[in-house]
Predict the structure.
Amino acid sequence: MKFIARVFAIAGLIFPLALYAAGPAELSEGTVKKIDQPTHRVMLAHGPIANIGMPPMTMMFKVMDPAMLKKLKDGDKVRFRVEEIEGDYTIVRIEAVK
Ligand SMILES: [Cu+2]
């Protein structure tokens, strides 16, 4: 009984750490081609996006929060995270790279 409790205690510690390590590291790279404020979309020329298994291409993405677009301009190199939300590839995080 004590052993089982210990196994759960250790798993409870390691699992969140593993999630944390996988999360922030998985950003993809791209370049802003066009910003469409009214539809809350941005066109990116992007490299491979490992977490959704997408090869490099140029395409439009929806952003989760329209305010994200205000910090970007055409030509910016960016790092971003895409998730599939209700069937749409949605940018949940994006930042310009200096
Ligand atoms: Cu794509």
